[in-house]
């Protein structure tokens, strides 16, 4: 006689178009296609939700994500939740979806917000966030930055690297003139520049008071990133973390800041471990999304709430989507994300039968 399974895992595909394509140096993003995950515990009917939204160049492919979720589904029904996580292998987006659903289930069962499930002694109302401005024309960038500041954002990140360095410098300079000295400006090149181009950009950005330049060089250029540090603008690695890992970044002294993307790292649990590790090494963590749906985006907000003293994080990306999986429980107010205090993720209405 076969024992009844303790859990059931279901997943369904979705496609979320962006309001307008997000132009970056590594390509244009027009939609986010992934899988909504639901795990049910049979003993009490408790449910948890997760999201697996792969992104080319960052995670496994859409097809490999689906295959990994199918393996997890078979495994959780015949074995247990721990082995279901192991069954996704190196499929980081799939692991994110499964691990987030399990964490949501457990936190909901304990009637605690997800961030307190990861950090029991925390009580956090808000986390600071930045707005993201795609690689637009000068006038469009200025308009977008002004609107963001009028809405209360104190930090704007501009995508750069698709045009000449001189054009990017002028664009960022015009945004600085438009928003004034009290707004933090960051730039993200997505690895588009050569070393000489990065030197020119950083020299100009230091005069414009840009605080951070994210991934100025390709991910493999750890030594180059190390040489760019100390020139008036903090150097952040994003793609470089995935390619090299924390040890190599620290050994090369290649970063002041590291972007933490839970979807690309394989889940909130792994992201929290990486964050604690780099904080011990005097590198600043910065939690960001991969332009995810509301389930993963809310998970990233809970992750940020579980980590003390973070700078403005890249969590205000829901406004880039024309459609979403459900109602967003995270209110954006005066440049901060208001952290849900309901049990678990706090996301409702995402799985309609």
From TrEMBL:
Pfam families, per database record: MenC_N, MR_MLE_C
Residues of the active site: 159 (proton donor), 261 (proton acceptor)
Catalytic activity: (1R,6R)-6-hydroxy-2-succinyl-cyclohexa-2,4-diene-1-carboxylate = 2-succinylbenzoate + H2O
Any GO molecular function: magnesium ion binding
Swiss-Prot/TrEMBL keywords: Lyase, Magnesium, Menaquinone biosynthesis, Metal-binding
EC number: 4.2.1.113
Cofactor: a divalent metal cation
Residue spans crossing the bilayer: none
Keyword Magnesium: yes
UniProt-listed InterPro entries: Enolase-like_C_sf (IPR036849), Enolase-like_N (IPR029017), Enolase_C-like (IPR029065), Mandel_Rmase/mucon_lact_enz_CS (IPR018110), Mandelate_racemase_C (IPR013342), OSB_synthase_MenC1 (IPR010196), OSBS_N (IPR041338)
Functional pathway: Quinol/quinone metabolism; menaquinone biosynthesis; Quinol/quinone metabolism; 1,4-dihydroxy-2-naphthoate biosynthesis; 1,4-dihydroxy-2-naphthoate from chorismate: step 4/7
Binding residue positions for Mg(2+): 188, 214, 238
Domain Mandelate racemase/muconate lactonizing enzyme C-terminal: from-to ranges: 138-235
Keyword Magnesium: yes
GO BP annotations, alphabetical order: amino acid catabolic process; menaquinone biosynthetic process
First-level EC class: lyase
Alphabetized HAMAP family for the sequence: MenC_1
Annotated family: Belongs to the mandelate racemase/muconate lactonizing enzyme family. MenC type 1 subfamily.
Function of the molecule: Converts 2-succinyl-6-hydroxy-2,4-cyclohexadiene-1-carboxylate (SHCHC) to 2-succinylbenzoate (OSB).
Name recorded for this polypeptide: o-succinylbenzoate synthase
């Amino acid at each position: 006689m076969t024992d009844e399974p303790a859990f059931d895992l279901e997943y369904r595909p979705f496609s979320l178009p962006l309001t307008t394509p997000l132009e970056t140096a590594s390509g244009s993003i027009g939609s986010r296609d992934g899988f909504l995950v639901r795990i049910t515990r049979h003993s009490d009917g408790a449910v948890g939700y997760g999201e697996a939204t792969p992104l080319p160049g960052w995670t496994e492919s859409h097809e490999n994500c689906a295959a990994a979720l199918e393996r997890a589904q078979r495994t959780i029904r015949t074995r247990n939740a721990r082995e279901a996580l192991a069954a996704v292998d190196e499929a980081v987006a799939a692991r994110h979806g499964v691990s987030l659903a399990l964490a949501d289930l457990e936190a909901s069962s304990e009637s605690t917000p997800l961030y307190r499930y990861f950090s029991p002694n925390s009580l956090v109302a808000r986390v600071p966030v930045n707005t993201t401005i795609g690689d637009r024309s000068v006038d469009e960038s200025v308009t977008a930055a002004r609107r963001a500041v009028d809405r209360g954002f104190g930090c704007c990140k501009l995508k750069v690297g698709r045009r000449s360095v001189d054009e990017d410098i002028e664009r960022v300079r015009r945004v600085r003139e438009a928003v004034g000295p009290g707004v933090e400006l960051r730039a993200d090149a997505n690895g588009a520049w050569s070393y000489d181009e990065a030197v020119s950009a950083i020299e100009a950005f230091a005069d414009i008071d840009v605080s951070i330049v994210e991934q100025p060089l390709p991910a493999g250029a750890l030594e180059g990133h190390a040489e760019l540090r100390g020139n008036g603008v903090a150097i952040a690695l994003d793609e470089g973390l995935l390619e090299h890992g924390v040890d190599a970044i620290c050994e090369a002294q290649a970063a002041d800041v590291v972007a933490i993307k839970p979807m690309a790292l394989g889940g909130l649990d792994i992201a929290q471990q990486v964050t604690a590790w780099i904080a011990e090494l005097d590198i600043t963590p910065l939690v960001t999304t991969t332009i995810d749906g509301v389930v993963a985006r809310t998970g990233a907000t809970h992750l940020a709430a579980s980590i003390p003293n973070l700078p403005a994080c890249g969590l205000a990306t829901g406004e880039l989507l024309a459609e979403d999986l459900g109602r967003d429980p995270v209110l954006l107010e005066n440049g901060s994300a208001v952290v849900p205090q309901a049990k678990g993720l706090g996301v409702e209405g995402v799985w309609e039968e």
